[in-house]
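Table S5 (text form). Sequence records supplied for joint modeling of the two-component complex.
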Amino acid sequence: MKRIGLWVLCGLLGLSAMGLAQGPRMGGELIIAFGTDPESLDPNKITSAPAGMVLTHIAETLLTMTEDLEIAPLLAESWEFSEDSLALTLYLRKGVKFHDGTPFNAEAVKVNLERFRRASYRFLLYPRVQRIEVVDEYTVRLHLDMPFAPIISHLSHNFVAMVSPKQIAELPEGQDIVAPIGTGPFKFDKWVRGEYVRIVRNDEYWGPKPYVDAVVFRVVPSDATRLVLLETGQVHAIMRVPPLDAPRVAATPGLEVVKVPSVRTIYIAFNYQKAPWTDRRVRQALNYAVDKEAIVKEILGGAGGVSDAPIMPLIFGYSPQKPYEYDPEKAKKLLAEAGIPKGFKVTLYHPTGRYMMDAAIAEAVQAYLRNVGIEAELITMEWAAYLSFLFKPVHEATFDMFLLGWGTVTLDADYGLFSLFHTSQWAPAGQNRFFYSNPAVDALLEKARVTPDPEARKDLYAEAIKLIWQDAPWIFLHYEVQINAQSTKVKGLIHHPREYILAHRAWLE
Amino acid sequence: MLSYFVRRLLVALPTLLGVTFIVFSIVRVLPGDPAQAMAGVHATQDYIERVRKELGLDLPIHVQYVRFLRGLLRGDLGRSIRTGLPVAQEVWTRFLPTLELTAASLFLTLVVGVLVGILSATKPYSLYDHASMFLSLAGLSLPVFWLGLMLMLLFSVRLGWLPAAGRGGLRHLVLPALTLAASSVALVARFTRSTLLEVLRQEYITTARAKGVRESRAILVHALRNALIPIVTIVGLRFGALLSGAVLTETVFAWPGVGRLVVDSVSARDYPVIQGTVLVIAACFVFINLAVDLLYGVINPRIRYD
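The corresponding structure-token record, covering 815 residues in total, follows.
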């Protein structure tokens, strides 16, 4: 048996060596399995990462975010802000055509952006952009009502993708695009709901053309089944490998595990306006009481990183702080100082199955809190009910603590900090569902929004993060790492932090 | 017979109307808000209110219900909140795969279940009987997702005979149908065995045997026919269980059926899709029950419908 294994290994090495020698090979159908069917492929309608992943192969954005999280040109070759930062001029790529032959130009950009602005489904753009001006055939200018530096990141978001203006014009009122016509390296081919989406190579693509003939995104909801499909060679790559299965997959010949940091931070928030959480010592005590390292290592199987800021390291504006180390004695001391009696009872709300090991993490936190004399009652809620529950105004909010995640999908601190910590964002108006309020933080976050200079913005965010860290409105837990797996026969796949697998430059051996 | 059929159809209408009312109310009693579920974790209240308005969810509930019924009369089930597609189209594309799976399982249930039951009944307390009754007990008690994964492990990972998941030709249907049918086959086998044992003790079977009818004929014609009515009843009821039990099987085998559609829609509080799907499933169930009732008369001509 061992010898067979050795031969297989030699064979694989040989194959991969041949692959290296030959370089990328044209042709073939690449199959990627993911857990959820896209809810839509209309850029105006989609909200989920799986949908964004499929769409991004078909329809391109003006700017893009590389896998190293740098903003890079795509359909816009360059851009500049006006002196007063109230206008953003975008210079478009020439000679680009949509899949239906319609030329891509400033007018097409205007049609698309106007459509985003009209629809309530797109919240990324419409608050700031007041007017879209076509300067000439390949120049477009966005007029803002106030300086808004993060708009560059917003335009690079995959949801803000350009589709053919002809398709938009011909779309019956009230209907969504089902088969998007973009400018991307792949063309839409077929979508069988609940089963798969198939896209084919666009031979007219303006950039480097894809190697594979087609990509199939297969919907396989069960984690275990996705693994089986990969192990039996029926798919080439899968998303979301359960952390505890990852070592086994990594040890399987012919398969490899790919870990990519995700932009999602997981936290447990305190009801900031309700006693005893109004006392900073109590909040800090609970941070000391929980062993975050152990949670990441034992429960997540290493698929995460302990938070050292309210946003994860890859986000623009991140500034590391000294983590609250695991120190139950210190926690007890702080609680005693704050006058918290032993056996104090609190509620901890959490979802189940929404985030990696969420329920198990809540249970672990419960055990850690018991160690310092706090009895946390766990209340599990189904996701939709949970969202409503956490959207109550401050006088109706009954929870003590809740567990939630936030993906800073624009990769800019504004989206990760302003939305969560600014006083104007208290639920239900915004995402500050834990009613944090610190005027100094508010001022810093407001200033960072209207400051065009990136370095100055970074300093402002660093200052805000420092204050938030000291205030400890959360138990700062961790950011997630997504675990994907693929066959070693596939080369050139990009596993993107936005929870995408990109097949643009992939090839099959 | 015909008037009975028409009468039953007429009775089905208020039943289905009741179903629409119950589903309509239940989904709205559930905690959670479709506008919010759709808008997602990142949405602001302002945005959610706009979505709610667009979806017509800001109207009073009775107005929404009347709108729904009016649409229904025109054959319009509305549009999905999540995907924006017509509900009828969503349900239809997902219903066919489920029907395929359910039909295959029903077939297995009838053929294998009844056959195993007959063989057990003819040789009661034999080794075969014990073995098959033990297996059927297992079939009844094994959780569907576990059984599905084990079958997958054996037949696709180890032996490589069958595809692990997905929909395609007949080969793709084997494992999910086996998984879904397991508990029904087991139930029908046990049921057939006990009913048939009962019937075989009847005097007319003794008479038949005494007048020299072959044993196989005594069992298959004289006894089985009389044992069929409870079996058909059970199979008819199992159809509903198969339809609803398909959720787990569909998830394990990545089968694009209606069960998963319902689960996804409930998570998203996609009211129109939940309503539409439940209505279609309920209609199916009502008609299967009607078919079963009509079958009684075929099996036993003494049953009259007036």
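Note: Chain B has a mean pLDDT of 86.
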